[in-house]
Amino acid sequence: MSRATTSKQAVELPPLRSWDGLFGHEAVCAEVQTMLAQNSLPQVILFEGRDGIGKRKLMAAVLGLMFCEEQRACAVCEGCRAVQHGYHPDVLWIESEATLKVAEAEKVQEHLTVRAQQQAGGRGDRVAVLIDIEELTDQAANRLLKTLEEPPAQSRILLSCSRVSQLLPTIRSRLVRWHVQPPAMAKSLEWLEAKANEEGLQHDPKMLRQALERFGLSPGRALQALREDQALDAESVRRLETLLFKPMDGAHLAEMQELLKAQGWKADHLAQRLELLLNRYYKWSLGLTVPETHPVDFKRIKHWRSILQEVYRAGGSGHNHLNSQMIAEAWTSSRF
Ligand SMILES: [Zn+2]
């Protein structure tokens, strides 16, 4: 309700339910447009398909097609803007982090019937959108079932689900199921590359393709995986760098050991890190960069390099896992 008032203010709120950037589902949108024109769009539709392939944006676009003043989801008319910013009075959008509860299923019935009375003689449908209905409590499912069995006139219900097997068979049988396919590989790669560039994520074509394949060609899940991998890595790298410049006592060695083990880092990883630190040190000493939050100590880097040489000598290869005993031995026997 508060959005209805704030939306008129000069400060523009970011759209809640934008279909901006939707890709790979042009054929479905065209089909919906045709069905709306022919008045043949099913009253209750389940959009089923993997996580992260664009179901939510697709459903927003379907609303856009329904309420756009030009029937083309133009994204600029008042109807489209009301949908995108969440203040369209005919739209109820339910999406919760947790399981959908019976109160929410009741809201659907109320929205569709109350609006039906208010709009008697008016034009346009009332629509309820429920995102991820696999997360329904049994009571909520039973309550929703009643609405699905007899949806009020001039109302529509759009549902989405990634794991249809979790739905009650009674619910499944009430729905027209539209299987949403992931976008084509080439389009997803293009999108993923643009996103990775935008967010400053490391990537190469092979890495992007592998991420897509790992998640059944779902671009959203692939992007999430890239973010998670690199967030974890960046944080661990920071911890490692901090440890490298701390006094090398038992506690710090144990902490480093734990970190190396958790990350599966080997001697080569540490060597690479030290080279990067050394580069940073040179740049800093030449006045090309500002000092880091933790000091890059040239002597300490050299010390670590000699330790690594010891580790290589002892293990014979950079592919060895490092362990704190090896490091401690090298540390105490090194010349510094
Ligand atoms: Zn429009």
Top keywords for this entry?
single chain, 336 residues, alpha/beta, Rossmann fold, five-stranded parallel sheet, 14 helices, 5 strands, 54% helix, 7% strand, elongated, disordered N terminus, binds zinc ion
Structural summary, described in words:
There is one protein chain. By secondary structure, this protein is α/β, with parallel strands linked by helices. The protein folds into three domains: 2-181, P-loop containing nucleotide triphosphate hydrolases (Rossmann fold), CATH 3.40.50; 184-239; 245-336, no CATH class. Helices cover 54% and strands 7% of the residues. The chain is built from 14 helices and five strands. A five-stranded parallel beta sheet has the order 2-3-4-1-5, sandwiched between helices. β3 (126-130), α6 (138-149) and β4 form a beta-alpha-beta unit. It starts with a helix and ends with a helix. Residues 1-10 have low confidence and may be disordered. The chain binds zinc ion (ZN).
